[in-house]
Specification:
This protein is of the alpha/beta class. 32% of the residues lie in helices and 22% in strands.
Length: 315
C-alpha cells in the first residue's frame, strides 16, 4: 500500500475531552479540511458548551472510552485543548486506552491533552502522539505545510525526523555524540502540575520537550524550578524547548525574558538544553511520538557565528 493509499484509508475519531469550542466555524472547517485530504472523519462532539467545557465530566469520559473501544478507527484527534482533562484522570480506564494504542490507534493532540498523554505513559507505558488539533491547526485558512507533512506521515504509519536551527547557538550545548532517549513532555504547565501525582511518568535518560502559551518568562522559570527541585530535569539526557508564545513583557522586567530563563538554567544544569523545536501553540508544529525512542543530535559549524542545527529522529 502506498503512502497515499494509507492516508486515504485512515479513519479518524474526533473527541473534545477538554474545553468548549471557541469557534464552530473553525471546527467545521477543520473537519472539512481533514475530509478533503482523504480522511474518513467520525465526530459526535457536542456543539454546545457546558460551563467552559465541551460537555459534562461524565459525557467527556464517555467520548474517550467510546473512542478507545472502537475497532474501526486508526486515530483519535482532539477538537481543541483548553482545560478539562485534569478533572478526569482518576476516572479514565487507562488499560482500555492502552489496548487501543496496542491495536495501532494513534491518539493525537497537544495543549491540555498533555495531561492525558503523561498519564497514559505513566500508568501503562503506552505511546501517544504530540501533534495537531482539529480547530486550531486544520480549521485555519491555510494549514501549515510542515504540520500537514508530519500528520499525513503519521496517518500513513510513519514518524518523520524533525530538524531546526538552534535559537541560542552562542551557548548551545555541543554534545560529542548523538543522544538517545525517550521523548516525553508537552505543555509545561501540565507537566509541572503532574509532579507529585501518579500521572507523571518516571522517565530516566529521557528527551523532555516543553512548550507553553500566555505564560510570562518568570512563570516559566518557576515551573521549571518545580521540575528542577523535584529532580525531574537532572534525570533527563536533554531538555528540548519549543515555542513559548503570547506573553507580554512588564515594564519592570529590565531586560529579563525567555533568553534570560534559558541562560539561567544552562548555568544550573549539566543536562543539555536546546531551543527552537517547532512545536507548541504555533502553526508550524512537528508530530512527535510521546513515549518512543528518538536520537537527538546537534551540529555546529566550525566558524564563529555558524548555525547550530538540531535533529530529532525516531529510532
Amino acid at each position: 500500500m502506498t503512502t497515499a493509499d494509507a492516508q486515504r484509508s485512515a479513519r479518524i475519531e474526533v473527541i473534545a475531552p477538554s474545553g468548549a469550542h471557541l469557534s464552530l466555524d473553525a471546527f467545521d472547517a477543520g473537519v472539512a479540511a481533514l475530509r478533503a485530504r482523504g480522511y474518513s472523519v467520525h465526530c459526535t462532539v457536542p456543539r454546545e458548551a457546558w460551563q467552559r467545557f465541551s460537555d459534562t465530566d461524565d459525557a467527556r469520559l464517555v467520548q474517550i472510552h467510546r473512542a478507545a473501544r472502537a475497532t474501526d478507527i486508526d486515530a483519535v484527534m482532539i477538537a481543541r485543548g483548553g482545560y478539562g482533562l485534569s478533572r478526569l484522570l482518576d476516572r479514565i480506564d487507562w488499560g482500555l486506552i492502552a489496548a487501543s494504542a496496542t491495536r495501532g490507534v494513534r491518539w493525537v493532540g497537544y495543549s491540555d491533552f498533555t495531561a492525558f498523554q503523561l498519564a497514559l505513559l505513566a500508568r501503562t507505558g503506552a505511546p501517544s502522539f504530540a501533534g495537531p488539533g482539529v480547530s486550531g491547526d486544520f480549521g485555519v485558512a491555510r494549514p501549515d505545510e510542515f504540520m500537514l507533512e508530519g500528520f499525513d506521515a503519521l496517518m500513513a504509519g510513519r514518524l518523520l525526523p524533525v530538524q531546526w536551527v538552534e535559537q541560542h547557538p552562542a551557548t548551545a550545548p555541543k554534545p560529542a555524540a548523538a543522544i538517545d532517549g525517550t521523548v516525553w513532555g508537552g505543555n509545561l504547565s501540565l507537566v509541572a502540575a503532574a509532579v507529585g501525582t501518579p500521572y507523571l511518568p518516571q522517565i530516566d535518560d529521557g528527551l523532555l520537550f516543553l512548550e507553553d502559551v500566555a505564560e510570562h518568562p518568570y512563570r516559566i522559570e518557576r515551573m521549571l524550578h518545580q521540575l528542577l527541585h523535584a529532580g525531574v530535569l537532572a534525570r533527563q539526557r536533554a531538555i528540548v524547548l519549543g515555542a513559548f508564545t503570547d506573553w507580554k513583557a512588564a515594564p519592570h522586567d529590565n531586560g529579563y525574558g525567555l533568553d534570560s530563563v534559558v541562560e539561567y538554567f544552562r548555568s544550573r544544569l549539566s543536562v543539555p538544553i536546546v531551543t527552537g523545536l517547532p512545536f507548541g501553540h504555533v502553526a508550524r508544529k512537528a508530530v512527535l511520538g510521546v513515549g518512543l525512542r528518538y536520537r537527538l543530535s546537534l551540529t555546529v559549524g566550525s566558524q564563529p557565528g555558524d548555525e547550530a542545527v538540531v535533529r530529532l529522529a525516531p529510532l
